[in-house]
Amino acid sequence: MKGNQLGWVAFESSPEVGDAAKRWLGLDGSCDWKTACKKQCKELGINFKTVRHHLARTTEIAQSIGDGGTAFCYGAVHRFQEHDIKHALLLLRPVKLTAANKEKFNDIDEGRSVLTSLADLNMDSVLSVCSPAPYGDLLTESTKLDPTIPREETFPQPVFEHQLLQAVKKHLVHGQAVRLVPYKLNIYGEGDFFKPHKDTPVNPQHFIGTVVVCLPSKFSGGELLVSHGSTCQTFDFAEHSGKPGVYQFAAFYGDCLHEIKPVTEGRRVTLTYHILRTETISEPDANDQKIYWPLDLGQMRAFPLARLPKGGPVPQHLQKALKAQLSALSGIGYPYVGFILQHEYTRSGLVPEGLKGGDKVFFDLLREIGWSLRLLPVLVVEEQRQSEGYQSHTQDVFSFTKQDFEFLNGKEDAEFDHGYKDEIPFIWYGEEGKVLEQDSTLGCYEGNYYEPTREALSTYSLASSLI
Ligand SMILES: O=C(O)CCC(=O)C(=O)O
Ligand SMILES: [Fe+2]
C-alpha cells in the first residue's frame, strides 16, 4: 500500500509477559524485525537495503527530535498572596471508618468537619478528623492518614487552584485543556513513606497526571522522587516546609513512577489533585476575572529539573530531514513506519489531545508535515539475556488487537488473538530505543516457562507506534 499512516499505542509487557506472549504468538527463532522487514520487502517487491537505509536514518532523526523533548514533571515554591490568605481554607471531613479502624480511632467523630487555613495549618484540628489511608499498610507500607476532601463551592479557593493550573498548563501540558480535581490529603508522620507507585486513574479516559501540593507543616526527609525512563527528579520540600504562607508543589504525568522517602521528623502534609483533560478550553468569564488576581508566575521559584529539556519547536532542518526520509519510504512503496511513544497511556486515554510531553511535540510535527496518523495498540516484547558474558537486549513490537486487550483485561470469553500478528519495524524516537541495532537472539531463548496472569498486567499501555 502506498501512502503513509502513523499509528500509536501499545501494551506494557514485563519480560515475563513477553515470554508468554511469544509463546502465544507461536514465535520461533525468526521474529526479529529485520527478518520480518525483509519478508515484507520481498512480498512488496522492494529493495530491503534501501528500506533499511531510510529506516536507519529515520531513527537517527527521530531520536534527535526525542532528545529535545519536553519535561515529564515540574515543581515550584510559591507564596499565598496576602489577599488570598483569608480565603485559603481547607475543609476536611473524615472518611467513613471501617469496623476495624473504628476501634483503633475511636475518638474520631465521623460527623464533624474541620476548617483550617491552607497557609498556616492547624495540625491538631487536621489530625482530629484523620483516619488511616484506605489502602492500608500492605500495599503502601505506609501509615498515611487520609481524610476526604469534599469539593464545596469555595474550597479550596479558586485563586490558589488557578495558580496551580496556570503553572501546570505552562510548564507541563503545554497549553492543553486541563482542569484540576482535588483528590486527597496525605499526612506522613515520622517514619512514614510511600513506596514507588503509579497513581490509579479514577477517570482513565481523561487522567493526565497528578499535582502534589505540600502544605506548610515542618518536617525533614520525605523527598518526593518522580521518574520517567531513566531520569529521576527529586522534589525536596523539607527545606521550605513549615513556613507560614508558603506552599510548594510538584506536577507530573500519570505514567511516572513516584515515591516518598521516609519522613525523619515532623509531619509532611500534602494535598493531591488529579490533572484531567477537558474536551474544550473554557474561557474565564467576567466573574472569574474579578476573583483571579493577576498572576505573576515569574515569582514562583521552580525546582531545578534533573534533565533540563531543550524543549521548544523542532528545528526546521530536522523537520525537513524527517519528511524527506518518510517520503522516500513511501515513494518506494514501503507502507508503514511505527514510532514508539515515550509515555504510557491507558487504552481510553490514548487520543491525540491526551498525548503527553514529547509525544505531543512529535505527533504535532508529523501531523504538520502532512502524514496521516493512526493510534494503534501494540505489544512490546522486551528481553534481556546474558550468556557466557555476552549481554543482549531485544525489543520487538507486534500488532495488538482489541481482542488481545480484552483477553488480558479479563473480559469473559475473550481469547488471545492468534491471527493478525504482523511485525512492523518500530522506531523509538527518544533515548530508549535502538530497534535497528537489535540482534536476533530470540530463537535461542530458553528462559523459565511462565504463564502470566491477567492481574500481572498494568492499567497502562506502553505507548507505541506510528505507521
Ligand atoms: O505525598 C506525596 O508527595 C505524594 C502522594 C502520592 O503519591 C499519592 O497520594 O498517590
Ligand atoms: Fe501517588
From TrEMBL:
Any keyword Metal-binding?
Answer: yes
Instruction: Check the record and name the Pfam families matching this protein.
Output: 2OG-FeII_Oxy_3
Please list the residue ranges annotated as the Fe2OG dioxygenase domain.
179-277
Q: GO: which molecular function terms?
A: metal ion binding; oxidoreductase activity
Q: Which UniProt keywords apply?
A: Iron, Metal-binding, Oxidoreductase
Q: Which domain of life is it from?
A: Eukaryota
Q: Which family does it belong to?
A: Belongs to the iron/ascorbate-dependent oxidoreductase family.
What name appears for this protein in its UniProt entry?
Answer: Fe2OG dioxygenase domain-containing protein
Source taxonomy: Eukaryota, Viridiplantae, Streptophyta, Klebsormidiophyceae, Klebsormidiales
